[in-house]
Amino acid sequence: MITTQIDRTQPPSFQDIRHIDLPQAQSQTLPNGIKLHWISAGEQPVIRLEFIFRAGNWYEPQKGASYFTARMLNGGTSGRSAAQINGYVDQFGSFLELNHGVERINVTLYALNKHLPALLPLMADILSDSVFPEAELENLKNITRQNIQVNLEKTAFLAQNRFRELIFGPTHPYGRNIHPDDIPGIHAGVLRPHFEQRIKGKPFDLVLSGMITDEVLRQVTAVFGGLPVTPYPEDLKETATLPDGPRQELIEKAGSLQSSIRVGKRLFTRRHPDYYKMLVLNEVLGGYFGSRLMRNIREDKGFTYGIHSSLATHQREGYLVIGTDVKREFTSQTLDEIRKEIKILQTEPVGDEELQTVQSYMIGSFAGAVTTSFALADHFKTIYFDGLGYEFYDKYIDSIRSTTARDLMALASQYLNPDSLTEVVAGGR
Fold it and tell me: For 130, which DSSP code?
């Protein structure tokens, strides 16, 4: 037998990624106006169905209505109790997931293809005949209240929630948080109107991913293409004025051994011309394990186990946030080091080697994140709901590669002025 010796002193060869041929979703509008999208990329007969409604925080009549409406969709219908719904789903080895966000409510079913004929009528029943039984709602309210009370003891929870309240305003859909004293005002008389105005008989996007066959499309169309659908009421305008200017706030937490820090500001959405380059700047600052904030505050100073910065984007607004947890006595020093790293980005060009490393990491991460049908569907939803097309991804690699050190200095000066940043510390200093 002939064996080949591997020279372990030499790194393996690599090739720069110049283009990714991303499989695209196909779309059609059903006879009743429901928009059907699908990506068939699975090798196993497994499917994910996502029913997506414009029914999130942005459209709720009062705080908490969207969250509780979403969580109660499997709470019971006229013909099935919550236990019967969940037991029925379980018997087919399926899984039902209910998610609520600032703009949308997502109802997601994971199932084997062969069980769709049995499960699709159930989904139609849930989306058209949820009745919000009082006992189930009271149970959910108690669980939610307990979870919030537990989280209110966590500095990270306090800091993140207050940060969003400060940059958007506590009444703005992106800044609203549910508090324990909001929960008593939630009852079926609040949830039913939201359900009827934003979900029952309303248009939705249905996104299929997995092994999508012609038979799957036929089954889905047969069940949902004939549902009676009426248009949404006129969408609400922005419901709150955004606050002006940065803020600094300390939330004292007696007895806390650590402080949670959030630093950042409102920025922009994916539609902004500086978005791609800002992604690179964020990555250099704190977006990955080798970032400057990690090297300084974790590796050199030992103040934290981890620090991270990210660009969060919603449909109408976006923001930058830097977050970390540190020992209480290191709070002020950590804030000083964050400001120091931002100042360096504004005054000193990023070196060629560091920039190339970040660019290669970002492109490689993107390539590795689009290898499954579910991931491809997630990437489709990102651009679809932001009003973008696949050219957003077509431009991604070139835009990352073409970002220069001079670009990053200009962006840091324009967007990361320390005086424009909001700082929240929960714990102490």
Answer: B
